[in-house]
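Before relying on records like the one below, remember that each one covers exactly one chain. Contacts with other chains, cofactors or solvent are not represented anywhere in the record.
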Amino acid sequence: MKKIIISIITLTLSLLIMNPIQSAAYSYGDPGEEKFAEAYKEVKQYVEADDWEQAEQIIETYDKEFNLYFKQTVPYIEQALENQNEELLLKSYRTALRLNVERRLHFAQEQFEDYGQAKLLLAKARGTFDVLQPSFKDDQGEEAVQSIYDSFDQALQSLGNPGLFGIGNQESDQETFDSKIEAINTSLKEAFPVPDQEDSNANLTEENLGLFGGEDGESSPIWKWVSIGLVVLFVLLIVFNRMKNRKEE
């Protein structure tokens, strides 16, 4: 009995060690906060105050995100900073935020069966839209804003709920989820196109989506299967050692 208890404790600790990012994502801070999106507010505040140096410093902080995930907007961001074009800069940044919503929702669809991850990604997409909402409202009106939020709410409901130990669980509905995601993306794509350029889905590539490196609790399916494989191997080693000890006795 003592050996069994030790084995269970060891296995539990191994699971926690193998997935520290996901554990942290659910333990600290606002799960829907997107720092890249929140930074837009500061950039807007600085350019409106004609403090372009501070605005550029903030954008440089997120140079990696722009060049990896939102590269379609980079030429316009650079042009706007060089010419101190407030309208172009903010418009380009808002396009990047729209692309970020698409990116988060794409991963939520990919990980639909993983309730925790899909819910987290949906929250981050909604958090990004919260920043876009004032501009979207000015352009599309209050009714359009409410329609987006309704789609987010319905998408969340369609994830279902695994419940606690299966108690109070609710069935998921991926067809509804996908339709609400499509409605959100379609509305935002029309409102925040790439400046002076016909928009495309070029950002939704394996590289730009960060397939091999998740962030903010966003885990790649590949690494998830690697983790499962390691757990299975660990359990098999425990069973093998136990059988070996019994034979020696």
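The CA atoms of residues 105 and 182 lie 9 Å apart.
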